[in-house]
Amino acid sequence: MKKLAIALLGTALALGATACQEKRTSADAPDGDENPPALSAEQQEEASEDATSAIRREQLDADIRAREQRNNAFNDGDAEGRTDIDIASEVRSKLEANLPESALTIEAEDGLVTVQGTVVTQDQYDEIEVLAKEIKGVQSVIVDAAVTSAQS
After folding, report:
1. Over the stretch 86-110, which tens digit does the pLDDT of each residue have?
2. Are 67 and 89 in contact (CB under 8 A)?
3. Tell me, what's the pLDDT at 10?
4. Separation between Cα atoms, residue 111 and residue 152, nearest integer Å
5. Which residues form the signal peptide (predicted)?
6. CA distance 28 to 14
7. What pLDDT, in 10s, does the model give residues 27-44?
8. What's the CA gap between 29 and 12, in Å, rounded?
9. CB-based contacts of 8: which residues, under 8 Å, 6+ apart?
């Protein structure tokens, strides 16, 4: 019985870990090498509604809280030694919550965060680096995003 419980727990953890590997803030965000497409007004509205819904906001906050608690427990709360996956996830959550009409892809490596995709205003573009640097472990940010207006 214990072996079954351990196997089920291991399977649940493996599924949970692989489900959280998405690099994009929305399904419409480009993959890493794609040129950023201009989103339609409908796509921007859907992304905005999803990112600003109370349930999604709670999910984003919970994700950030969980990763911070893990960092505090296993890394003594240090910014150094954080995993690239944790840094990318927190930056993604931060940008999704604060730039709801954006379609961004986030990658992190050794404290360097690269943000690609699209935003709808220059103000949102300017906020990307500021918001990303609020995350513990981010040393520098490369913003490779385009400002595009909605296509009708």
Report:
1. 999 999 999 998 998 889 999 999 9
2. yes
3. 67
4. 38
5. 1-19
6. 26
7. 555 555 555 556 666 766
8. 28
9. none
